[in-house]
Design a protein that fits this description.
The protein has about 250 residues and is an alpha+beta fold. The chain folds into two domains: about 1-35; about 40-240, no CATH class. The chain contains three helices and 14 strands.
């Protein structure tokens, strides 16, 4: 009888030790994850020309969730954007279908110098933390991307390191932008924008996941007065989604 009691007591102690160890491990992992989690958005928008554009009005998509909000939009609304020339004015507009950034500039670019083109590139940048974990596995439904999204189609992803975690998915789509300015017939304008949402954390080693979304407007020539159709590209599911909690 005593032997049975000793065996039972030993099993109980073993189970208790395993339980305490499991709980302690789970608490450590969760605490390490929560304390080290950092979620950020990086947004850039570049304008390149080799001549002078006059009386410029642009309406461009900015990264937003399905409700028209995002930390990027909040940062732009607060005028916390780097790279903005002093004579530019940025204003946000909610069209009901998408949030657009209005760019007003008296001029963009510089005249040719000594008979040669004088290239100018202006890049707007926003780096902002997200108050919540960014759902990089499903950004079209749960994160900030360039909208509106039209004619969404699956596309082949660029070559990836097959040893890296995560199996990315890629899509191509069309969106809308508006350009209005006057320029010489040989003047050109190229506009491109991108947003990257990234989560990083550290438990026993550094881990991360991310998605990337970009749009580009085909090079415009001369004066322009109307809507254009940028091409959008999104790649998501990159990195590790083996996290303790979302």
């Amino acid at each position: 009888m005593d032997k049975i009691i000793k065996i039972a007591l030993g099993l109980f102690v073993l189970i208790l030790v395993l339980f305490v160890a499991t709980v302690s491990y789970t608490m450590y992992v969760d605490m390490a994850y929560q304390n080290s989690l950092n979620s950020t958005y990086q947004y850039t928008c570049s304008f390149s020309t080799e001549d002078v554009l006059h009386n410029v009005t642009l309406f461009l998509p900015v990264p937003a969730d399905i409700h028209g909000n995002s930390p990027v939009i909040a940062q732009i609304s607060s005028q916390e954007v780097t790279g903005v020339p002093a004579n530019w004015k940025l204003t946000l507009f909610d069209t009901g279908k998408a949030t657009l950034l209005q760019v007003l500039a008296p001029t963009i670019g510089q005249p040719p110098a000594n008979g040669s083109a004088n290239p100018t590139t202006v890049t707007l940048v926003v780096n902002v933390s997200s108050p919540v974990y960014i759902n990089t596995a499903s950004p079209l439904d749960h994160a900030a991307v360039f909208r509106p999204i039209q004619n969404l189609q699956a596309a082949a992803c660029p070559s990836q390191d097959t040893t890296a975690p995560g199996i990315p998915s890629c899509y191509q789509y069309q969106t809308s932008a508006y350009t209005d300015y006057t320029a010489a017939p040989n003047a050109s304008l190229t506009i491109s924008a991108s947003v990257t949402g990234t989560n990083t954390w550290y438990i026993f080693s550094p881990e991360s996941n991310m998605y990337q979304n970009s749009i580009s407007i085909q090079t415009l020539h001369g004066s322009n007065h109307g809507w254009v159709t940028p091409v959008g590209w999104i790649e998501y599911g990159m990195g590790s989604n083996d996290t303790p909690a979302f």
